């Protein structure tokens, strides 16, 4: 049970208890106002913020933006038709028309700092791999030399 459910449960219990005990009207009204304020701040306000963010994203759509639809299809916006509220998406050469509301989000390109970190990690792994490969080849040649020397010693003993 999350905190909002616990708070609603305790407020309801308090409200019912206050009414049953014949408490004064002002405490009951105060509890109802408190309940409405909590409802507004935990449910209505976050929902409104989310709607405003979505409207901002939809108004910021441009031709060439990489988007993902609500169905999970990735593509690039080819054209926008504000009169019909549709968008044409190029998904690897296949052009599909969707309602604007079908756009889930706009993909942002990877930042250059992330790419630099990835490149540095890749080069570090490549260097470690090449060092490990050279160490392995040295160990292999060392084992081969040891095997050759053991074989030559065995051949010398057999010839004696």
Automatic annotation (TrEMBL):
Keywords assigned: Cell membrane, Membrane, Protein transport, Translocation, Transmembrane, Transmembrane helix, Transport
Region (Disordered): 109-160
Compositional bias of kind Low complexity: 111-154
Pfam families assigned to the protein according to its UniProt record, in alphabetical order: YajC (PF02699)
Record's bilayer topology term: Single-pass membrane protein
Gene Ontology biological process terms from the UniProt entry: protein transport
Record localization: Cell membrane
Primary localisation category: membrane
Family assignment from sequence similarity: Belongs to the YajC family.
Name the record gives this protein: Preprotein translocase subunit YajC
Source organism phylogeny: Bacteria, Bacillati, Bacillota, Bacilli, Lactobacillales
């Amino acid at each position: 049970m999350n905190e909002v459910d616990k708070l609603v449960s305790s407020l309801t219990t308090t409200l019912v208890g206050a009414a049953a005990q014949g408490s004064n009207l002002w405490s009951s009204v105060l509890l109802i106002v408190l309940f409405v304020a909590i409802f507004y701040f935990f449910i209505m306000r976050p929902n409104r913020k989310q709607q405003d963010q979505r409207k901002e994203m939809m108004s910021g759509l441009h031709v060439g933006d990489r988007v993902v639809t609500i169905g999970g299809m990735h593509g690039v916006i080819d054209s926008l038709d504000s009169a019909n509220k549709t968008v044409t998406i190029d998904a690897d050469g296949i052009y599909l028309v969707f309602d604007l509301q079908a756009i889930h989000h706009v993909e942002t390109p990877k930042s250059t700092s992330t790419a630099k970190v990835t490149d540095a990690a890749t080069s570090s792994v490549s260097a470690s791999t090449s060092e490990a490969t050279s160490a392995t080849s040295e160990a292999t040649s060392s084992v081969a030399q040891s095997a050759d020397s053991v074989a030559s010693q065995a051949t010398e003993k057999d010839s004696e």
